[in-house]
Structure to design on (222 residues):
């Protein structure tokens, strides 16, 4: 296989790689946005409505009904109801231990998964410009190879170099066009994750206060 043929295959490979990471980056962004939306309540009013139902059941010490509510279709994919379900199952623990258990569960099962996928987006943000730069280097190598192949008598035809230089610049542009939107998307996703954390912490704090009151009314058994 001669040198020009290798460079032609390299051009195809770079285009395929850029297309693949662009598609995968879009997939991750879409997946994360949907995953966060599933874990959050659609509005503070919906969260308050849910916590009010839980509070009423706790006031009557109907813990099984609280568990059934959290495990019902509207709530079984959301973070707060699933953590409340865990808290109800472990309500005999001390308050500090229960809070620590819920925090660890939230960190391990929800935030860790989101951060893992965010790390792949960060990797794509770094890799896309590097692939573009690789295309630039490859295009320049091809251009200089053509210059070297031309004899001094015939000179260099600029049209023979235009394609290679165009490829060199085009791949750089594609790499940046992939990375820049993903940087903006990553910032937006980080904001959503922060709102998810704040919402879950606030909602769990309210629930645990109601749970403490309910258990104290039942005789303080933990």
């Amino acid at each position: 296989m001669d040198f020009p043929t290798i460079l032609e295959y390299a051009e195809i490979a770079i285009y395929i790689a850029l297309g693949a990471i662009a598609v995968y980056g879009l997939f991750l962004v879409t997946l994360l946005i949907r995953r966060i939306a599933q874990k959050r309540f659609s509005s503070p009013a919906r969260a308050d409505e849910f916590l009010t139902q839980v509070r009423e059941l706790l006031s009557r010490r109907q813990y099984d009904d609280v568990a059934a509510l959290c495990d019902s279709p509207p709530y079984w994919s959301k973070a707060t109801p699933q953590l409340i379900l865990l808290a109800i199952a472990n309500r005999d623990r001390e308050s500090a231990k229960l809070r620590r258990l819920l925090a660890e569960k939230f960190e391990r099962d929800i935030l860790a998964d989101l951060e893992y996928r965010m790390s792949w987006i960060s990797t794509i943000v770094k890799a896309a410009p590097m692939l573009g730069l690789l295309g630039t280097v490859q295009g320049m190598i091809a251009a200089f190879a053509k210059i070297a192949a031309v004899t001094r008598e015939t000179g260099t035809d600029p049209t023979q170099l235009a394609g290679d230089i165009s490829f060199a610049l085009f791949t750089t542009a594609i790499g940046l066009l992939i990375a820049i939107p993903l940087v903006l998307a990553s910032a937006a996703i980080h904001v959503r994750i922060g709102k998810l954390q704040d919402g879950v912490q606030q909602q769990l704090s309210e629930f645990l206060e109601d749970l403490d009151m309910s258990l104290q009314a039942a005789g303080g058994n933990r």
Residues 3-215 form one domain.
